[in-house]
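quick q for whoever's on today - can somebody do inverse folding on this one?? i tried earlier but teh output was garbage lol. tokens:
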């Protein structure tokens, strides 16, 4: 309960004074029934006794009877209208009844009578927080702390409020001040959370350890310690902490949910799903658990279930922008989802999460059309990842005379690719746990001319920062670019196959065509094309080395038809998700339901990338998944001499392979629909000599195209930057 404000006129009558003293002794000892009885006796003797009415109201408030409390405190005010404590405590009673405007007015009246009431400033802060006026609430709380610096709860509340404002460094400072006053485990726990949100994981671990050392049964702190250790990659220690949290409080849905996330990180998908489900059983309204269960289902390729779970998470928490982005990502994998549905969901995301933010309407960038441009790239995937394989070549091959690169990195686990990309940048900024508004301010301060989103709605995106419009020109491209839905995103780099003319009106961005939607640069360790394929044998091996999440039931059923029509053929699938035995069973059972015996299926798990590339030596024809086609995997497949059969699907995510094949001169490998896809695969499998010739020349064909030449492709990108920059300089977007 909020602190009550003391006050009242001196009492002169001896008998009444004795009753007041008796009542206060009961009251201060928490014997509220006895205190109430004495206050009533006081009022029987002196119905005009203002302080007795006031304190009786306080007792009734403490006992949960706010309406009765209001009556008695108002009587006290009638008898002593200039007593600030009466107005302050009436404000608390009105707050309990959610009559916040009246409550605020009472606290302002109390402070007008006595501006030095620390408790009144504190309680005004609580009321302003209830009304959503967080900055004003913070100001009131800070005034309270100035007047009463030794009152620990005020510093804790300031820290909590700063956390709600995403000002975690200031929140940590407030919690440290509180700890100087009282070294309570709850405050250590709060400090650990504030440090963790700043990315100061080692310090957070130390703070959480202080909490559990002071109170070994503190389940919530064990849970938080486990999360911090998880983020540090110390999975064994994290497991022990989360298990301890669950042992102490088996009803904590958060702990079960977090244990599921840890198991998911370790690839134990079925076990993770069980923990997520337990969290949901304990707390059906826990949106985070539904979101995580959706992610687990998506990893296993169970896209319809994933979409349903993400939708439910968003329904439970309409402000959960990450779950909404996950829904959008999953819809790209959803069979039957078309451009209109997908772009409508993106616009809904912006309307719900980004539209209320205030975009920057003025930018101080010099409108000089031919000057060197400062390009900002924003991604959480500046590491070895399929996304960086798309945009990395562009960063590395930029002409430094034409552009200067600034990278805004949300990458949590850095590697050798991170180092390579950092060396390409003039400035490298970590964005880990930096609030969106602060990131916007950083970008504006850096003077970025063109800001490029490299994530779309994939994990770690910073689209809310783009909603503030920190740069004069904003582009979404490459990483997982299928349209953002943001009114503040000016351009989407694509190509005519990836986004046909007839659907461009559905996009929030203006489409700018490049030679291909993405380019490719083969790694230096890429093996030579393996000429010892199965082409010299009787059987043909079809294969797909894309993420298993892209391999839908519909795709498997179509592939089964192809295998049935090509005698002796087999199918190879390879992805790290297939390290999981349950996932293997799921795939084999799905194919068996479509008539494919397990002995015709080759399942391969995760391997180092060089070995992954060598695996193409076992494949004769690659089958592109759908509705979400390959991207970098398609380029890798072609580079290793394996042609790809791809359908031209109903949305951008289903047309990426078709765009690549068109850009490198392999249009004849693109099918217009599923029936044509089946026929094309069968026909190509029959012409063994043509396959052998193509296998020998395919790498050169890719390298000879603009799409497959990252240097020429980057020059085209720089031309695009110059064109859209000149448009802005001329006053148009």
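ok took a stab at it. sequence:
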């Amino acid at each position: 309960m909020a602190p009550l404000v003391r006050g009242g006129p001196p009492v002169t009558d001896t008998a009444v004074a004795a009753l007041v003293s008796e009542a206060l002794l009961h009251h201060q000892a928490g014997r509220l029934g006895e205190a109430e009885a004495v206050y009533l006796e006081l009022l029987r003797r002196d119905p005009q006794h203002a302080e007795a009415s006031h304190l009786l109201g306080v007792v009734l408030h403490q006992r949960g009877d706010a309406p009765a409390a209001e009556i008695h405190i108002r009587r006290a005010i009638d008898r002593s209208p200039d007593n600030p404590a009466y107005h302050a405590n009436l404000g608390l009673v009105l707050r309990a009844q959610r009559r916040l405007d009246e409550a605020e007015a009472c606290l302002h009246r109390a402070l007008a009578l006595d501006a030095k009431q620390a408790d009144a400033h504190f309680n005004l802060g609580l009321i302003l927080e209830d009304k959503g006026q967080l900055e004003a609430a913070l100001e009131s709380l800070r005034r309270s702390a100035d007047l009463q610096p030794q009152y620990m709860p005020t510093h804790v509340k300031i820290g909590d409020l700063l956390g709600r404002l995403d000002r975690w460094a200031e929140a940590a400072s407030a919690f440290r001040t509180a700890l100087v006053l009282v070294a309570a485990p709850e405050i250590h726990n709060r400090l650990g959370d504030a440090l963790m949100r700043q990315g100061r994981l080692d310090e957070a671990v130390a703070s959480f350890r202080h909490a559990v050392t002071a109170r070994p049964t503190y389940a919530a702190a064990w849970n938080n310690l486990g999360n911090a250790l998880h983020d540090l990659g110390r999975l064994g220690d994290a497991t022990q902490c989360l298990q301890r949290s669950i042992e102490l409080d088996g009803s904590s849905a958060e702990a079960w949910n977090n244990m599921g996330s840890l198991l998911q990180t370790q690839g134990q998908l079925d076990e993770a799903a069980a923990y997520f489900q337990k969290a949901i059983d304990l707390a059906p309204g826990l949106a985070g658990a539904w979101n995580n269960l959706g992610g687990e289902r998506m990893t296993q390729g169970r896209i319809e279930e994933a979409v349903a779970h993400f939708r439910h998470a968003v329904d439970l928490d309409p402000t959960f922008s990450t779950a909404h982005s996950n829904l959008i990502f999953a819809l790209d994998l959803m069979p039957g989802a078309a451009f209109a549905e997908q772009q409508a969901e993106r616009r809904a995301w912006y309307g719900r999460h980004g539209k209320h933010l205030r975009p920057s309407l003025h930018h101080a960038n010099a409108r000089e059309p031919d000057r060197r441009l400062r390009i900002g790239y924003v991604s959480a995937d500046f590491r070895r990842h399929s996304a960086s394989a798309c945009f990395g070549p562009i960063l590395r091959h930029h002409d430094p005379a034409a552009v200067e690169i600034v990278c805004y990195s949300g990458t949590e686990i850095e590697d050798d690719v991170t180092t390579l990309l950092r060396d390409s940048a003039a400035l490298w900024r970590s964005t880990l746990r930096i609030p969106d508004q602060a990131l916007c301010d950083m970008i504006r301060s850096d003077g970025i001319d063109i800001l490029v989103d490299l994530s779309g709605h994939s994990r770690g995106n910073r689209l809310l920062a783009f909603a503030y419009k920190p740069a004069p020109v904003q582009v979404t491209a490459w990483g997982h670019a299928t349209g953002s839905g943001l009114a503040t995103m000016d351009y989407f780099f694509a190509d005519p196959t990836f986004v046909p003319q007839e659907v461009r009106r559905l996009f929030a961005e203006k489409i700018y065509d490049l030679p291909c939607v993405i380019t490719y640069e083969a790694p230096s360790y890429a093996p030579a094309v393996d000429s010892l394929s199965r082409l010299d044998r009787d059987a043909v091996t079809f294969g797909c080395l894309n993420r298993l999440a892209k391999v839908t039931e519909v795709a498997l059923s179509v592939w089964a038809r192809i295998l049935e029509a090509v005698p002796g053929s087999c199918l190879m699938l390879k992805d790290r998700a297939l390290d999981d035995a349950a996932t293997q069973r799921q795939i084999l059972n799905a194919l068996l339901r479509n008539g494919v015996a397990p002995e015709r299926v080759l399942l391969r798990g995760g391997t180092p990338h060089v070995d992954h590339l060598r695996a193409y030596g076992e494949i004769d024809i690659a089958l592109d998944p759908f509705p979400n086609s390959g991207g970098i995997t398609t380029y890798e497949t072609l580079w290793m001499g394996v042609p790809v059969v791809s359908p031209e699907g109903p949305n951008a995510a289903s047309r990426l392979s078709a765009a690549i094949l068109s850009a490198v001169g392999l249009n004849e490998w693109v099918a217009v629909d599923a029936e044509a896809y089946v026929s094309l695969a069968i026909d190509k499998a029959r012409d063994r000599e043509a396959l052998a010739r193509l296998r020998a020349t395919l790498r050169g064909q890719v390298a000879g195209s603009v799409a497959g030449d990252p240097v020429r492709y980057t020059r085209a990108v720089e031309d695009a930057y110059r064109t859209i920059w000149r448009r802005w300089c001329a006053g148009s977007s």
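fwiw The chain has four domains: 1-114, 253-331, 338-519+712-733, 534-708. also The domain at 1-114 is CATH 1.25.40.10 (Serine Threonine Protein Phosphatase 5, Tetratricopeptide repeat). so keep that in mind when u check it
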